[in-house]
Amino acid sequence: MWNKLPTWQVFLWWHHFFLLWSTIDGQTRYSIPEELKQGSVVGHLAKDLGLVVSELYRRKLRITSEAGKQYFSVDLGRGELVVTDRIDREELCAQRPSCLLPLELVIDNPLQLHRVEIEIQDTNDNSPSFLTKEKVVKIAELVNPGARFPLESAQDPDVGANSVRSYLISKNDHFKLTVKTHKDGRKIPELVLEKTLDREKLPVHNLILTAVDGGDPVRSGTSEITIIVLDNNDNAPQFERQVYEANVSEKATPGTEILQIRATDADEGQNGEIEYFFAEQTTDLILSLFDIKASTGAIVVKGTLDHETNALHRFDITAKDKGNPQMDGHCGVEIKVVDINDNIPEIIVTSLTTPIPEDSAIGTVIALISAKDPDSGNNGKVTLSVSTKSPFKLNPSVSNHYTLVTNGPLDREKNDRYIVRISATDSGKPPLSSEKVIFVELLDVNDNAPVFSQPTYVVYVKENNLPGKILCSVSANDPDTDNSAKISYSILDSKVEDVSVSSYVYINSDNGSIYSMHSFDYEKLKVFQIHVQAKDQGSPSLSGNATVHVFILDQNDNAPAVIYPSSAALGSFSQQRMPRSAKAAHLLTKVTAVDADSGHNAWISYRLAEATDASLFTVNLYTGEVRTKRAVSEQDDSSQRLLIEIKDDGEPVRSATVTVSVLLEDGLHEPILDLRQKSAEPSQKGGRVTLYLIVSLASVSVLSLLTFLILAVKCIRNSRSSGSCCMRRSDCDEYKNPNRNLQIQLNTDGPIKYVEVLGGDMLSQSQSFRSCLSPMSEYSDFTLIKPSSTTDFKEVISVLDASLPDSTWTFESQQVKRSPSAGADSIRWRKPGQIWSL
Ligand SMILES: *[C@@H]1O[C@H](CO)[C@@H](O)[C@H](O)[C@H]1NC(C)=O
Ligand SMILES: *[C@@H]1O[C@H](CO)[C@@H](O)[C@H](O)[C@H]1NC(C)=O
Ligand SMILES: *[C@@H]1O[C@H](CO)[C@@H](O)[C@H](O)[C@H]1NC(C)=O
């Protein structure tokens, strides 16, 4: 094969060819395009070589060159040169501009050598092509415009116009194509950067390079060019916002995430990897309170937040990428610390005035108080209050300031110290509160007069007491303090029986002990009053007073005195005469005695102590009537002697005796005992006494009647509701109600009976009431006398009622239904077993 011949053989062939040429005349050249079909006629060889066609066969025209044999043959019948095989110019001549195939033809008879040249003409049968169909070009994004990037040239085996003539690049914004022609004529396409690349906009550019030849028709070949834009750290991290805002509760614990900030970086790889940091100028406070997660941008609580110290935190955050050079972005963060009601309101007492006088007027300022709560809003809105029970109130003044003023009367004696509880509550949810206690002390003012333990004191003192003995002790109390409570006792001057009371008694000014300075005689003075005064030493001083009722108690210091039968001259002796004809129960005489004492001490009883004949006479125990027990007989002695003992009921018993000598006479008529005659008889003194008694009785009766009427009217009024009125003295419970009951006391002094009308209860001594009947009871003869020693009548009534021990006496007033027979109320006294009706 031609193309497989070694170079030296080709050279040999050429050498040989020229050798022959020198010997053989003439040369013929044909020109054919490549790639002719087989059998195509190249030229009329016989004619061109001057040969006769018919001779050809005989002369054996033949192609001798090996190469020529392969592609051509000679049609001996027609004398034409025809193509026998495909002729590829590119194969035969490669890129040589002309391609000649030499042929040697030999013809025998005569042997002649002919040389024929066949020029193979190029046809555009090859497209330009690239060795690499896909080319990758990496370009850094920051390369300046104008940079050139050589591309691969396309290959086209065709020559001349049919070979690569130009290059085209697909349409794009960034690149243009230039073709550089080398010295050797090679055309090398180059990409020229027209506009800066941005990886972030378009990281990969796909271009198509087309090589075009100049043939007709035009043929082309393409290559895909992939341009990868290499990243440059040309983008700073960008935050989504300029300023981030967040609220965080001041209660948030360390680790709580507050917010997430985010920055983005358009770069890739390390250039786009972002880390977050606090900006350089961040204060230590912020650094101690907050932390930022470098990788995620989460801002978390680190320290303890406090709305009250810092309600708002502002700081900057930097985001940095990891490129080289490093780029960073910034944003601001505002964190509001939301208030939590975590501060208890505080009560501040600015000034306090204590102690204050107890007579301070209402509205006196005691303290200036303010409230403080560092929380904000409602959490810091404080209201103060004070217990409504205390006599203080709070007056609000300027914001959160209050004055504590008195709101009511103060009394040190009730409360010498007030504990004022002030509570402060804020309006948070839930509200917090605190309490403060203020102690307000009160200063004493002498506003309390000394008060005696009792308004009246009652003292019983036996008569004949020893002077200098303590009668009683009074005491007064003053709730004030110090001098205002220092009490001195004194006796207010008054008269007792025209004598100053201070001559009777003396009081210890320090402790109120009252001493008697006198021995009292009941028969002269039964009762008297002492007005005592207690005075404190306050300024001005106050005083209180009380009355001491001194009752002198009767002692049995008087023996009964016989007043009838009169025997002043003979001592206790009297002579009586009696007829022998006297029957039984004949009244011989009536012994009458008086006792200056009162009560039991004056309760006189009579007893026949001795008699000549005890069977003949008897003495009435109560009346002193001496009567015969039986009829006098002839055998009885004419002279009888009776010793009558008169005893009182005191302790010790005192007694007197009277001796009555009786002369029994015959023929003596029974005397008509007329007591009125008898009483008138003894002396002039007796008549006067009787007159007194009558006057007394009359006045007493009128008084009693008046009192009864008043009582009756009262009772009727009262009983309108209750139906009956009973004033019953039960026990000691109604001691201090004078004038409650009307008391009537009947005293007996021998034959002299008198009535004491007293208010209140009966005297215990007034057992003498039993002898209220006349000694001559059968004749219903009353002799009444007003007691001589009774001083102030009304006063005694009231005092006795209030003071005297209980008695068995009751006074009843019963309203009886009106009937024809009983037309009036009946009033009666009742003592067990005995009833007097009026
Ligand atoms: C923070 O709270 C306030 C009201 O207290 C509100 O107006 C604001 O929108 C809140 N901000 C955020 C970021 O939640
Ligand atoms: C009052 O003082 C006197 C003398 O010091 C004394 O004898 C008396 O017992 C005192 N009285 C009272 C009630 O203490
Ligand atoms: C004390 O006595 C005075 C005058 O004697 C009198 O005016 C006053 O009412 C009395 N006070 C008392 C509490 O009894």
TrEMBL record:
Q: Which GO terms describe its biological process?
A: anatomical structure morphogenesis; homophilic cell adhesion via plasma membrane adhesion molecules
Q: Which organism is it from?
A: Mola mola
Its keywords, alphabetically, are:
Calcium, Cell adhesion, Cell membrane, Glycoprotein, Membrane, Repeat, Signal, Transmembrane, Transmembrane helix
Question: According to its UniProt record, where is this protein located?
Answer: Cell membrane
Q: Which Gene3D superfamilies match?
A: Cadherins
What's the protein here called? Cadherin domain-containing protein
GO cellular component annotations of the record: plasma membrane
> Taking every annotated instance into account, which residue ranges of this chain make up the domain Cadherin?
24-130, 131-239, 240-347, 348-452, 453-562, 578-673
